[in-house]
Amino acid sequence: GAVSWQDKMEVEGRSVGVLLDQPWVPVEIAEIPFLAKVHFGETSYRLLISDLDTVWHEDMNREAINHRAQELNRRLKAPVASFFCHLCAVARPRLNGGAPEDVMAVFSQERLPHQLLVRLKSELAGVPFYWEFRCSPAPLSVVCEQLVRPLLSVSQVLQRQVQELMTLLGRKDAEIQDYRDNGAVLSRGRLETEVFIEQCYKESFFSERLSELCAVQNCYGFNGDIQELYMAVMKQRAAFKRRGSNTQDSPTHTEKTVSECAVPSHNQRSSSETAVEKKPKRDVSSTDGSQEEQVQPSYCSVL
Question: What predicted TM-score, i.e. pTM, was given to this entire model?
Answer without folding.
Answer: 0.67
